[in-house]
Amino acid sequence: MTKKRTLVFLFIVAVIIAALVAGIVLTDGLYEKTGNVNETMQDAVLHEGDKINFFGLRVNPAVISGFVVTGILLVFAAAVRLFVIPKFTYVPNKFQLLLEQAVGMFEGLAKNNSPHRNGFLGAYLFAAGTYICVGTLFELIGIPWMTAAGASVTLPAPLADINGAIMMGCLSYIVILSGGILSNGLRGVGRTLKEFSLPISMSFRLFGALLSGLLVTELVYSYLALSFVLPVIVGVLFTILHALIQTYVLTMLTALFYGEVSEPPVLKPKKQKQKKVPSEVNPK
To answer: Is the CB of residue 198 less than 8 Å from the CB of residue 205?
Structure first.
């Protein structure tokens, strides 16, 4: 029985491969590329040709994506707070266990890296990590939108826009700066400003990771022999990996630097002055 299933599986795989090869041969020469990789990358960064009208303003598609993702998260959080959390039980169900594990993971990340001041840090890491993960996975939905020029465009991930990535990096830097001020005052400001390149590195790390997925997918699409099925697999895998990796990287870096600048100074014990004992006078 096992051998029969193996033969059936191999036959199905062979049929799929044969269908792909036939599709490649039959469609060769039917498609014409309207642009090259350079134009695609330039449009992904500058968004010159896919601006969207937003209450009279011409904005990038990622702005709409940011509002949509934020709205989804706020509605979901309100629904969980009103209808799910009041029904929590001592023995958790699957959803309660998943929610507790997510909150506990970010709370543990905050406590391990910032043992002195971690109340607000845990909440921010959870919010930022959720936004990055859900926002990156958002592009898998493929919501179409109409541009100002009348063309159709798919809403990208909010952080696929360089402006969104810069704002996330700067917001994390402000949180780190606030931890330094609350714990050490002006000394904390000096510790934070010492890492002046931190928001730049955070921003371009997020943007570069998401842009690299677009670049790889576009390179795969540029070859007709690879443009069947494979781009879907590559796009999904890269999106999921980027969502998980970038969530962990940014939250970990924020927690590390927050713990560094909020660490209270070590006070050195004052040395007690030893009293001089008068020496005995030797009688002559």
So the answer is: no
Q: Per residue in 41-63, pLDDT tens?
A: 666 666 666 788 888 888 888 89
pLDDT digits (tens, 9 = 90+) for 191-240: 777 777 788 888 888 777 777 766 776 666 666 555 566 667 777 887 88
The string over 202-220, giving b where at least 16 C-beta atoms fall within 10 Å of a residue's C-beta and e elsewhere, is bbebbbebbbebbbebbeb
Work out how many domains the chain is built from and give that number. Answer: 1
Domain residues for 147?
Answer: 31-261
- Report phi then psi at 95, rounded to 5: -65, -40
| Cβ neighbours, 10 Å, residue 140 | 12
199 located within any domain: yes
Tokens 């020469």 belong to which residue?
A: 29
Rounded to whole angstroms, the Cα distance separating 173 from 176 reads 5
User: Token digits for 145?
Assistant: 């939108």
Structure tokens at 242: 């980027």
